[in-house]
Design goal:
single chain, mainly alpha, Na+/H+ antiporter like fold, 14 helices, globular
Length: 344
């Protein structure tokens, strides 16, 4: 029996089920600690496997791809804040001034790391460049985000030095150490990892599902469904959808206009359109009064879930397109196949 065309792919359905599960049965207390630990291990495993899979040449090429990194940073710290300011007269009345401060805060946050790279991997994009771009965005965001908050939003202060060092240490331990460890072991395990593409896909998708469950559980426990009225919640959903659509559309359009390859366009679109809930929560606790943090974080909570679900659909679409190309290429006679295929 064929699959109905209107039915989303399995991964999207799993995301929806994960959000429903987190809403009905959120992880709290020791359960939340357990899931947080499992999520950390899954993300570390993801980076370890990518490090073992990628060649030294592809990693160096990704790190030196400065035009792509510059565009991702420009999208994260220039395009988003400009969109937030430009849309304020039009979309601000949907939620009121207090909640729109949270929208502006969302616009100045750095990009995600784990989910951006996982999405780029699923979509067959430039993974080494994604690792560099997303990580640089998070590290620079420790310093850039408070400055932008000071320019766009009235704050009670912007002391972030202690949290910044802690965040840098977390990124190094959770992401770079596993990635480098996997790459150093590549001569011994690289072939084994490349032969098990399904394992990498399971870890990619599993890490995203765990991030969604733990993040949404925390949001539900913090009173996600009680902080605002249903009307304001609907307005926030509209604002988040408009911001995400514009970011995805503008990054894809500009990458195409600048002549980037499809792999680079995928990386720019997914890394340049995301915002980090993991960075947003601790920074908000430092930058804003405690009484305002709940409302400030609500837009990023909603945007975080929306970006994961929308980008997962896009990633699956890119993956199907890549598999169709590979199948068509395999069907060609050997003499007609391209000779400059790049090893990934």
């Amino acid at each position: 029996m064929s699959r109905p065309r209107f039915l989303p792919d399995n991964f999207t359905l799993m995301l929806v089920c994960t959000v429903i599960l987190a809403s009905l049965v959120p992880a709290y207390g020791q359960g939340a600690t357990l899931f947080k630990g499992i999520t950390t291990l899954a993300v570390a495993a993801l980076f370890f496997l990518h490090g073992a899979r990628l060649s030294r040449e592809s990693i160096v090429a990704g790190a030196l791809h400065w035009r792509l990194h510059l565009m991702v940073l420009a999208s994260t710290f220039v395009l988003f804040p400009l969109l937030g300011l430009a849309l304020r007269p039009l979309l601000g009345p949907l939620v009121g001034p207090a909640l729109y401060v949270g929208v502006l805060y969302l616009c100045v946050l750095p990009s995600t790391v784990q989910s951006s790279i996982a999405m780029v991997s699923i979509a067959r994009g430039n993974i080494p460049a994604a690792v560099c771009s997303a990580s640089a965005s998070t590290l620079l965001g420790i310093f850039i985000t408070p400055m932008l908050v000071g320019l766009l939003v009235a704050t009670q202060g912007s002391a972030v030095a202690a949290g910044g060092l802690e965040a840098i240490g977390r990124i190094l331990l959770q992401l770079f150490v596993p990635f480098v460890s996997g790459h150093l072991l590549r001569p011994w395990i690289g072939g084994w990892v490349k032969q098990r593409a399904k394992l990498l896909k399971v870890v990619d998708q599993g890490s995203i599902l765990l991030v969604v469950y733990t993040a949404f559980s925390a949001a539900v426990i913090e009173g996600l469904w009680h902080h605002v009225s249903w009307t304001e919640l609907g307005g926030l959903l509209v604002i988040c959808a408009v911001l995400l659509a514009l970011a995805l559309g503008l990054t894809a359009w500009s990458a195409r206009r600048l002549g980037f390859s499809e792999e680079d366009r995928i990386t720019m679109m997914f890394c340049g359109s995301k915002k980090s809930l993991a960075s947003g929560v601790p920074m908000a606790n430092v930058l804003f009064a405690a009484s305002a943090v709940g409302a400030i974080l609500l837009p990023i909570m909603l945007f975080h879930q929306m970006q994961l679900m929308v980008c997962s659909v896009l990633a699956q679409r890119y993956a199907r397109r890549a598999m169709a190309r590979e199948a068509a290429q395999a069907a060609l006679p050997a003499a007609a196949q391209p000779q400059d295929a790049v090893s990934r």
